[in-house]
Design brief:
single chain, alpha+beta, 3-stranded antiparallel β-sheet, 11 strands
Length: 243
């Protein structure tokens, strides 16, 4: 396994499941190319721009958009997504959170973090999937990953002293994970519709959007059925059956 293959999405859970799982276990993330069609990406962008917050001019990430529009629950329970997540958490998954990202030009990136810092689930039972609805590169807010960092488990964090970005989640830049020096950042460039599956402990973040267009994406969080997790003050996560 090498990092270039992992970043390019060389292995697919639908064609090479053994190699795809081995790559995920080695690096802490998996890229599944051409997961959504361009037409479906356009549809989801239109639905996201029709959420009440966007209509009111609020382009912070939309928390739990499935409550307002069932289309986003349909995304969460897509059979092909659930099938992969089931392998990653080794059991029947439930959904616990949906998000829609606008990432307008000038939006500050999300600081380095581990998803399980917020969810506080047990080992091996939590994973998430981030799907870019446009081509994503470092310039427009592309993702940053630290391959292999998931093997460390929970890492310490340090508080940040940054002003709030009105276009970013209010919790996005409160703190950042302290990454051991042996891990290096890798910037992902993903074609629209590609899915990024993320281990609960993988250190990752995103670049600021320095382009002149929005970087739309959806993010869904999943948990092995029956496992404990933190609901969160803002997200108010609740288990959602996916069948």
């Amino acid at each position: 396994m090498n990092i270039e293959d992992a970043m390019s999405g060389k292995y697919s859970f639908y064609k090479d499941p053994v190699l795809a799982m081995a790559s995920y276990q080695e690096f802490g993330f998996h890229v599944e190319k051409d997961f959504f069609t361009s037409e479906y990406c356009d549809f989801l962008i239109a639905e996201g721009n029709n959420l009440s917050g966007a209509r009111a001019g609020n382009f912070k990430p939309a928390l739990m958009p499935h409550i307002e529009n069932s289309v986003f629950f349909d995304v969460m329970k897509e059979r092909k997504t659930v099938d992969v997540i089931g392998k990653l958490v080794d059991g029947t998954p439930v959904g616990i959170q949906t998000q829609f990202f606008y990432c307008k030009p000038g939006t500050r990136g999300f600081s380095l973090h581990q998803d399980n810092f917020y969810v506080e689930a047990g080992d091996g039972c939590f994973a998430s999937v981030w799907i870019g609805l446009v081509d994503t590169i470092p310039l427009n807010g592309g993702m940053i990953v630290y391959p292999g960092s998931h093997k460390e488990g929970n890492l310490p964090v340090r508080k940040l002293n940054l002003s709030l970005d009105p276009k970013q989640d209010r919790n996005a830049n409160n703190e950042e994970t302290e990454v051991p020096a042996k891990y290096s950042p890798h910037h992902l460039s993903l074609s629209r519709g590609s899915a990024l599956f993320i281990h609960a402990y993988l250190v990752h973040g995103s670049n600021s959007n320095q382009s002149d267009s929005s970087r739309y994406a959806v993010l869904n969080l999943y948990l092995k059925q029956g496992e404990k997790f933190r609901s969160g003050n803002s997200a108010q996560r609740q288990p959602l059956a996916l069948t």
